[in-house]
Amino acid sequence: MADEIRIKDLNLRCVVGVYPEERREKQDVVIQVRLEADLGAASRSDDLKDTVDYKAIKKRIVAEVEASSFQLIERLAGRVAELCLKDPQVQVVEVEVEKPGALRFARTASVVLRRARPT
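The chain above was modelled as a monomer; its predicted structure follows.
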């Protein structure tokens, strides 16, 4: 079983949606990220070079999402997954993007994507 690093409840704002009223102003999105990597060396060495720098990944996600203007949360999730897989230690990433208020009578709507490093 792979080790995991999780980034939970990353609350950001971006333009996302297909309807004109959705594209006028930034909307809230909530992002969950699960990174699979071998954390064995880091658990023994206590050295950042032996693990995934999740702070650096978080900064890349924030910069990309807040500057984005996608129509679909599916594309937004795909872009976040691409950013995560740029780290050579990340083998698999799972990204959930929630769009609170997207559906009347529902707390949120979300998509979940799982991507693996190409072999």
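Residues 92 and 113 are 11 Å apart (CA to CA).
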